[in-house]
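Practice problem: predict the structure.
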Amino acid sequence: MVDRDDLVKFTIPQLLRWRVKTSGDKVAMREKDFGCWNCITWNEYYDLIRKTAFGLNKIGLEKDDKIALITDNIPEMLIVSIGAQALGAISVGIYQTSLPDEIQAVLNYLEVSAVFCDDQEQVDKLIEVRDKLPRVKKVIFEDPRGMRSYRSDDWFMSIEELYALGDAAREKDMERFEAWVDEGSPDDVCHICLTSGTTGLPKGAMMTHRNYINMGVQLTKVDPLEDTDEYVSFLPFAWIGEQMNSFGVALATGITINFPESVETAMEDLKEIGPHFMFGAPRIYETIRSQIWLKIDESYWLNRKFYEYFMKVGEKAARYRMAGRRMPLSLRFQAWLGKVLVFVPLVNQIGMLRLRRAYTGGAALGPELFTFYQAIGVNLKQIYGQTEITGIAYMHRDGDVRPDTVGKPLPGTECKISEEGEILSKSPSVCAGYYKLPEKTAELLEGGWLHSGDAGYIDENGHLVVIDRVSDVMHNKQGEMFSPMFLENKLKFSPYIKEVVIFGDKEDFVSALINIDPIVVGKWAEDRGISYTTFMDLSQKPEVAELVRQQVADFNRSVEKEHFKIHRFAILYKLLDVDDGELTKTGKIRRKFIREKYADLYEALYDESVSEKEVEAFFQYQDGQTTTVKTTLLFYTMEEDA
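Answer:
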């Protein structure tokens, strides 16, 4: 039996081989296809990786070569990645939403030799920039639909053809694969993970086998997992959040990874699986919360009253649970009653009944949202890290969940705060640096510490409190400091508000551009007989403006400091979007970009004589097409007592 700490001595393929020896017939992966769940055991998983490695080698992939993956969540994303890693090659994840020019820039920067795509949509993006990809030798696709006309071009190959090529090569040299696997070292770079790219071309963080496996081992020291536990893979593979689970946690624990039928059915498929743990960006939990609000709003009058009453009880009980304190007997009974009558049926409907723990990371989540989930019985906890430290470095412990912090360091992780207030970390999960960017690597790892770029402090309980990005912390004209991210998250707890961008650096007051939630506000408008056509039309309705004004007024009354209050706001006529460059691939606000793009709106927010402005709404779609629409944007000033 291998000690858990000894797992970091393996590479990812070596650890997979060990899993085969210890539990080869257990289900490693499950995929939903045409409505049926199909199982892949650890034995079958390893066999697929073996034939993939042989096949990739036959098409010319060798040690240190790169293969990029542009794919939805399917088993092949892991099979191809680990198959390449078995050869000593390096996998790269690229977001499926990337445009052709973005893909071309990344492939050339990382010197990619082959690309794996899941379907024709992604293949067509490569065709569009093919003449600018001199290093790409082969494009492999998984879904053959629509690919018939490409079969005569030897630049393309189906995954089945790759498997067949691998099978034939394996017949000639059965032992070669094991030799490849044996040659690997835990400190070899196995994957390049792209940073979120808040400014320009993303950087490629060079991740090692040890990075991923150490993170999986240390995480499960805090929150143990059983090899019978289920996980649903629905996060983009290009994001470190998915890699740390599918590479690190899955191989360190032997859990089963479940792949939904499609991105669109992921939440429904989650209900069928009933996972034991879940990880997602804040936007996912905000969306689920909005769906819960809608379910309650559409329910009977008595159900709504029960929900309102027991939610208050649940919030009180949650504060005891999060702090690890014993509840008074009367509160314990009321919380139990609320759980039985209201929250168990509700949580079951959203597929979270078996969840022991849910994690959120990638961006901060407002304290109110934490309390909401804990109140309904979902053990939601914050994790904190970044791509360069394999996603997780700090996390809440059960019974010590403090909604305004990100918890304590994982075992084996050191933390300190620089004189400038920047969060610095040390861990075996820190990456090897940025690919072909020695100066950026030196800045990242200066003094042997990972420089996060985030401002924060360690509180009296040993918890890390993240304030904001060092570059994003703002000061008003009076020099008073505030965190735009903190204010944004607090305002986003309103079910009617989807996104907020806070301004106020070196200004007299705080202002905001606000996105309404189209689903919740749309339902609210329909219930009141307010007709609308498009999101733009809905966002500019006077009744909606009054609704948002009430949310801002409630926010202003809830903040402690006067200079936190929002004095002026406007409701944006479009949703902030990745395709328009306003959000990163992981949903973070690109604050500087938005400030420049909407410079005229920013100026109007700080000119109190302006109450409306004619603007041209520019939209860019995923296929690269654009359109422009003219509209009138209204600006609102809050009363002093609001």
